């Protein structure tokens, strides 16, 4: 039996893209530090970036993805 109520997260892509645009010009050290801060906030321990967050593009994608959910709105439907 499926639950008739499920939670839907609507992302705010516009706000997330604004964050990504602002960070495109940021130095790599700032991007890496921001990624580590996000990882700590979601409960990941460690002081080094994982292998899948080594490049600038990977870091920007991670930050943009996180921002899209951080600026999202959870609704019950």
Describe the structure.
It is a single chain. The chain has 77 residues and is mostly helical. The protein has one domain (7-76). The protein is built from 3 helices and 2 strands, in the order βαααβ. The protein has helices at 13-23, 28-41, 56-70; strands at residues 7-10, 73-76. It has a two-stranded antiparallel sheet with strand order 1-2. Helix 1 (13-23) runs antiparallel to helix 3 (56-70) and helix 2 (28-41) crosses helix 3. It is globular and about 30 Å long. The two termini are 17 Å apart.
List keywords for this structure.
single chain; mainly alpha; 77 residues; 52% helix; 2 strands; 10% strand; 3 helices; two-stranded antiparallel ribbon
Our count of domains comes out at 1
Q: How helical, in percent, are the residues?
A: 40-55%
Query: What is the count of β-strands?
Result: 2
Query: What is the straight-line distance between the termini?
Result: 17 Å
Sheet with most strands: 2 strands, antiparallel
Mean pLDDT: 77
Strand content: 5-15%
The main sheet orders its strands as 1-2
Low-confidence parts, pLDDT < 50 over ≥5 residues? none
What is the gyration radius calculated from CA atoms? 15 Å
- What is the string of SSEs from the N terminus onward? EHHHE
The number of helical runs is 3
Structural class: mainly alpha
Described by the principal axes of the CA atoms, the overall outline is globular
